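Hi support team,

I'm opening this ticket because the web form for multi-chain structure prediction keeps timing out on my end. I have pasted the exact lines I submitted so you can reproduce it. The total is 1025 residues across two entries, so I didn't expect it to be a heavy job. Is there a limit I'm missing, or should I split the entries? Thanks in advance, R.K.
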Amino acid sequence: MTLLFARSHQWLTPSPLEILSRLLGFFLVFTLSGNTVVADTYKEKLDLQPLSGQFLLASFNFQNHGPIEAFNKQMFQLFPRSLGQILQYTHTRELHLRFALGRWDSELWGAQPGDGQNAGGTGVETWAWVEADNDVEAEARWTSLNNALSGLFCASLNFIDSTRTIRPVMSFNPTGDYPTTNTSRLFLLHGSLPKEPVCTENLTPFLKLLPCKGKSGISTLLDGHKLFDASFQSMSIDVRPICSPHTGTCDIEIQQTIDMVLDISRSLQRKDSPVPRPRDQHELICDTSKPYASNEYCYPMDNSIDLPWSLSDLFGRTISGGCPFAINLPAEETQHVCIRAPENKLTTMETLELAAPTLTEGQPDLKCYMLRENVPFDLSFPKQQPPISPLRQEPLLYAERSFTGHGQEHGGVKTVLRNPNPNDPIEVVYLESLPWFMKPYLHTFKAQVLPVLAGEEDVISELYYRPALDRKRGTQLEAKLIVPPNSVVILTYDFEKAVLRYTEYPPDANRGFDVASAIITIPPQRRRSDGKKVPATSIRTTSLLLSLPTPDFSMPYNVIIFTSTIMALAFGSIFNLLVRRFVAVDEVQRVDLKGKIRGLLGKLKKGKTE
Amino acid sequence: MDRKCLLAIGAGALIRLVLFTAFPSLPTILAQRVEISTPVTSYKRLQEGVYLYTHGVSPYDGGVFHQAPLLLSLFSILPPSTIITNLLYVLADIFSAISLIQIASSGVPTVTPHHVSPRKANSWPPWAIAAAFLFNPFTIATCIARPTIVFTNTIILHSIAAAVNGRRGPAFVSIAMATYLSLYPALLLPPLLFLTYDSLKATPKPSIQAFSAITMIMLSIVLMIYFKLSHLITGSWEFVASTYGVHLLLPDLTPNVGLWWYFFIEMFDSFRAFFLCLFQLHLLIYVPSVCLRLRKQPLFALITLIGISSIFKSYPAIGDTGLYLSLLMLYNHMFSLMRYTFFLAAAILYATFLGPAFYYLWVYAGSGNANFFYAITLVWSISNALIVADAIYAALRDEHETERPELIGKDVVQI
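Hello R.K., no limit was hit. The queue was backed up. Here is the completed structure from your submission:
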C-alpha cells in the first residue's frame, strides 16, 4: 500500500477523487495481472516521420482491447466508461469519429499515414453501425448517439440532423467482426459537420478517454497550443468488435489516433518568441537566384534548410515516462516511440538510460525506443550534413475538388482524380454529401478522361443518387469509377443555389456555407501488373465554401409593408371599379375643394356667432 | 383562315426557328433567367426530372422537379434531340396563335348574348391579334427558353377557343389539363362555364344550374383520369405533394417576377402559414366578384382572371403576362376608354429593362442587394395590376355606354 501511495505522489493532479480512481485502476491491474483473468490490453505508440519541406508527421496511436462479455456487462477496465455506456444505450456496434483541421498536402507529403483510414474531412465527421429493427429506430438511435457524443466531446454533433445524415451504399464497410449479429439489423449512418472548428475543447475530452489521461506516456506531448498550431491535424476514435477466428472469442477495440503535421521552422520560432514576429534581416536566407536579389531586396527561402530539432523544442515538453498500463507488455509490443528516417540519419538521446534504439529487421530506416516509467524521454535530431531528403510515399490517387462558375445563382463542381501509377488502373468510390440548398443537376454529371483513350470513355460503372428534399434531406451522390493508369478523370456537374428564408441563414451569411469534403474510397484490390495487394485507402478532398444569394436581413417589416401595400392597391383599384356604378358628372352634386372650404368656413362662422 | 393569318403564323414560326438555330446558346441563357423560368416550369429542371425518371429514381422524391407526371412521360418518349424539342415548342406557339384567331373570328369579344359593344367596328382583325401574340417579346422569350408554361398557355387558349364556339367537351377537357399542369387555371372554371353556356348553340338551352352540374361532374372525371394516369406512370401518389404542394406552400424561394418570394423569405416563421393562406385566398376572392360584375362579357372576365393570376400566383413568369397581354388585344376596340395607357406602358418597359439589370447587380456584380430586384418586381406587379384595373374600367364603361348611349364621350364618375 505504501508503494502505491509513493507512486501516486508523482502524478500531477492533486484531486483526491482522481487519485482514488487511479489507485483503483492500479489495484485492478495488479490483481488481474496477478491472477490469470484476461484484462484489457493497452498499447500506445508514437510514430515520427520527417516529411519534405521541413515538416514532421507525428502519429499518436492508442489502442485498447478488452473482452466484449465484460463490456456488455458494463465491467469497464480501461475502456472509457463514459463512451461505453453511450454505445450500449444507443445500440451502436461500431463507431468512427473524426475531428480534422487543415489540408493534407499530398503533392508535398505523399500518401496519408495509415492509408488515410484515420483521417476525416474538415470539421467533424462521424459514421456508425447502429443495430435496430427498422430504419426509423436506427435514425432515432443515431440522433441520441449524436446528442450524447456532442456532450462528451464538446462538439456540435447534435446538429447532425436528417439534412446532414446520409446512408452510404458503396463507400463504407464494417471493419469489425459480427459473428452473432444479423447484418441486416445493422444500419450505417454517416454525418458530417464541415463548419465545426476543432479546438482544445475537443482535445481535452479526447485525452480523458485514455487510461493515462495525458499525464504520462506519449500523450503528455499533446498540448492544445501545439496540436492546433499544426499545418494538418486529425483526431480519430474508432470502436469496433474484433473476433479471433481461432478461439471464437470477441474483444471490443477502441483505437484513438492523432496525426499531426508540424511545420518545424514555425514550431521552433514559436519556442523562441511566442508572439509571431517577422524575422530580422540577418536571419533571412535569401534566394540569390532571383534577378532582383541584392542587399536591399530579399526573396526569403522558406523551409529550405535542414533544421535541428528535438521533441521538447517542437512540443514544448518532454515525454514524462511511459504510461504504466502500456509498459508491462511483451517486448515486441513495447516500441513506444519510433522514428522513420533514412538509415544514415543521426539521432541522439538526451536520456542515457535509453540510449540504444531497437532496430526492426527488414526496416533499416525505422528506429524505435522504449519508454520507462517515470523516466522522461526526449529525442533530438541534429543538423544533417549533407542534408538528406526525407522519404515520400507516392499516394495511390490525387484528388481535388473546386467550384466553377461565378455569381450566386448557379455554379458547378469539378473534381479532378489523378492516378499517378503508370501501369495500373485503380477503382475508386466517390461519395459526396451535399446540403439541400445546393441542388445538383444529375443530368449534367459527366466524367471526362484525360488523355483521351479509345474505349475508356465510360469510366463510371455504378452510380447511386438520392436527391435532396427541401429542408428535410441532403443530396447523396455515390459513384464507382475506374481511373485509368497515368491519367486524370474529371467529374463535373452543375448545381443551382437555393434562396433560404432569412431565419435559415447563419449570423455570418455572407461568409458562405461549408460543403462537406468528398470521400474517395479505394476498395482493397489487386494490381493487374504485379498482382500486389492494394490496401483499402481513403482520401478526403477539402471542404468547399458555397456562397448563396442573401436577402436584406434588416427589412422584414419593410418588405411586409411594401408588398401588402401593392396588394392592397391592386385589390382596392379593382374592387373599387367592380362595386360602384357609373353616372354622368352632372347627375351628381359634386362638392369640389372650393365648396368644401366654403362649407368649413361657414361652419366656423356659425360656431363663432353662437 | 385567310392569307394574312397564315402569313402572320409563318413569320412567327420563322422568327422562332431563326432564333433557335442562329443563336444555339440563347435557349440555355434564357432558360436560366428567373423572369422566364420558375421552379415549377423550368426546362432545366424538366430535363433533370426526365433524366431521373428514365434512370429509375423517382423525381418527386427530390426537391428539384415539381412538374406534372404527364409532361415527364411526354418528354421521356420524345427522342433526345434539341431540334425536335424546339419544334415542339414552336408548334405549341403556332397552335396558340390558331386558337387566338378562332377566338377573334368568333366575334365573342365584341358581341355576346347580353352585350353588343358600340365600338365593335374598331376591333382588330384576327391576323393582327395572332401577330400581337406571335411577335410579343415576352412570348418569344418564353418560347425560346422552353418552360412548360408554354404548354399550359396553349391549352388554356385552346380551351377558350373551344368554349367560344360552344364546344363544351374540348373546352373542359382542356381546362382540366391546364389545371392538372399548373393548378391556377382552376380559377378560370366559373367564367369558362358562363362563356360556354352563352355560346351554346343547342336549343332549347338547358338551365345554367343543370349545365354547370353536368360540366363539373365531367370535369372531375377527366381530372381523375389524369391523376390516375399519373399514378400509373410514377407508381405512387407522391407527385401530388411535390407538384401542387409546391404551388400552394412555396418551399422553393427562387426569385421571380411575383410578389411571393421575397415576402416569404422575410416572413417571420410564426406567421408563414397565415400569410400563405391569405395570399391564396386573396387570389380566390377575385373570382366570384369578377364573374358577377362582368357577367355580360364572360370572355373578358376570364381574361381578367388570367391577368390577376399572372400577378398574384405563387410562381409567375413573364409568360403569364405575355398570355394576358395577347388576350387583351381581343378587346383592342375599347382601349380608347383606358385612362393610363401611356403611364402603364412606360412602367412595364421600365420594369422590363431594369429588372434584369438589377438582378445582375444583386446576384453577379454584388454591388446591389436583393432589394433592388424586389423593388422592380413591385413596379412590375403594380403596373400589371393597374393594367388589369384600367381594362376593367374600359369594359365597364363600354357596357355602361351600351345602356346609356347619350353618355358617350362625356365625363362620368363612380358612386
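A quick check on our side: The longest strand of chain A covers residues 250-263. Let us know if the file doesn't open in your viewer.
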